[in-house]
């Protein structure tokens, strides 16, 4: 008897056969029975060798290939490929991105093991090409510390997850695996083109437990080939709207995202504070940022982003940073 697949990897594509080939190749190394997952591809009327590339992988992967008769746009094609899913779990993979080896099988096993979980969200490597200068990791576990293990899943606090979504895309959709019944409940993300993944990841946190595996789940291509770069300027207005929407749903569900940020920054060391304040300043409206910053200052009794006493004494900032790190390690308040 044929086994019903448990997860669908959804790939929307248009005229990027060279990258699509690499994406499909990454799915051939998932430590997962090929009969246990489906690769759904929605081809947005490509005029290149996309159909040939798909045909080359039909013997290695279980592929469900749909080809639009005309280009229906990125957002509608995204909805189209999601409509091809009829499995308990789904994952999105843009045609220029890669799934990390073995990640899909591990993520599905984790969802299987925890009935209340709805999402395994992944840290991703962002790079233009392998080993590119400027490559970096996207993803931070806000409550993580030196005792956080690498061999156990990270379990997100709901306020923590929504607080991170408030200012940035929390982790990455690349390598993330969603429980399909919870995914279908997400509505706000459908009105976004570029920031759909940030809104989707945020909404998933409303419907159950969010988990992460403490290693890289995927590789996200940046640079001139990135979809966001190619069409992002037309949707700059979505940045402010997604932040406003996440604030609204957090307030509606009584999730204290603002208070979470105040508590998180107050207990953080000087390096972490600088990082978090920069995230908030870039991601929030000035009035909301000022509100959070004022609460932090009241709790600390001083302004965390002013020049410290060490700098005022003429000590270079890089040396002051090292001294503060020593202070934080020893819990000795040398400088405020």
- SSE string, helices as H and strands as E: EHEHEHEEHEEEHEHHEHHHHHHH
**Tally of separate helices:** 14
Please outline the major beta sheet.
Answer: 10 strands, mixed
The domain count comes to 2
Account of the protein in words:
Strand 2, helix 2 (50-57) and strand 3 form a beta-alpha-beta unit. The protein is α/β, with parallel strands linked by helices and 336 residues long. Helix 5 packs across helix 10. Strands 1, 2, 3, 4, 5, 6, 7, 8, 9 and 10 form a ten-stranded mixed β-sheet that branches. The protein folds into two domains: 7-247, Spore Coat Polysaccharide Biosynthesis Protein SpsA, Chain A, CATH 3.90.550; 257-330, no CATH class. It has helices at 17-26, 50-57, 74-83, 103-113, 158-167, 180-183, 196-204, 227-231, 238-252, 257-267, 270-283, 286-300, 309-312, 317-330, and strands at residues 7-13, 37-43, 63-67, 89-92, 98-99, 117-127, 136-138, 154-155, 172-179, 209-221. Helix content is 42%, strand content 18%.
Entry summary:
The chain is α/β, with parallel strands linked by helices. The chain has helices at residues 17-26, 50-57, 74-83, 103-113, 158-167, 180-183, 196-204, 227-231, 238-252, 257-267, 270-283, 286-300, 309-312, 317-330, and strands at residues 7-13, 37-43, 63-67, 89-92, 98-99, 117-127, 136-138, 154-155, 172-179, 209-221. Helices cover 42% and strands 18% of the residues.
Features of the shown structure:
336 residues; alpha/beta; Spore Coat Polysaccharide Biosynthesis Protein SpsA, Chain A; 2 domains; 10-stranded mixed β-sheet; 18% strand; disordered C terminus
């Amino acid at each position: 008897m044929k086994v019903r697949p448990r997860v669908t990897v959804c790939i929307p594509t248009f005229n990027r056969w060279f990258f699509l080939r690499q994406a499909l190749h990454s799915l051939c190394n998932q430590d997962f029975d090929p009969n246990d997952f489906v690769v759904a591809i929605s081809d947005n009327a490509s005029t290149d060798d996309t159909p040939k590339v798909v045909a080359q992988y039909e013997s290695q992967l279980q592929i469900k290939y749909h080809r639009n008769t005309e280009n229906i746009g990125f957002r509608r094609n995204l909805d189209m490929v999601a409509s091809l899913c009829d499995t308990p779990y789904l994952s999105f993979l843009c045609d220029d991105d890669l799934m990390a080896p073995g990640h899909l099988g591990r993520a599905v096993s984790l969802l299987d093991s925890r009935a209340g979980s709805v999402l395994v969200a992944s840290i991703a490597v962002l790079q233009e090409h392998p080993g590119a200068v400027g490559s970096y990791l996207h993803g931070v576990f806000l409550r993580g510390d030196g005792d956080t293990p690498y061999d156990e899943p990270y379990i997100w606090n709901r306020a923590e997850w929504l607080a991170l979504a408030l200012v940035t895309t929390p982790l990455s959709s690349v390598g993330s695996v969603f429980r399909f019944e919870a995914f279908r409940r997400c509505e706000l993300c459908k009105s976004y083109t570029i920031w759909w993944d940030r809104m989707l990841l945020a909404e998933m946190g409303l419907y159950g437990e969010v988990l992460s595996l403490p290693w890289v789940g995927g590789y996200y291509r940046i640079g001139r080939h990135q979809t966001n770069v190619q069409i992002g300027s037309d949707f700059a207005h979505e940045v402010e709207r997604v932040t406003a929407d996440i604030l609204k749903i957090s307030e509606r569900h009584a999730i204290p995202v603002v208070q979470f940020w105040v508590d998180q920054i107050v207990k953080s060391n000087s390096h972490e504070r600088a990082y978090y304040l920069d995230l908030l300043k870039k991601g929030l409206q000035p009035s909301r940022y000022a509100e959070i910053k004022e609460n932090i200052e009241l709790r600390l009794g001083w302004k965390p982003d002013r020049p410290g006493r060490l700098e005022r004494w003429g000590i270079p900032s890089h040396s002051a940073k090292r001294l503060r790190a020593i202070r934080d390690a020893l819990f000795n308040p040398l400088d405020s």
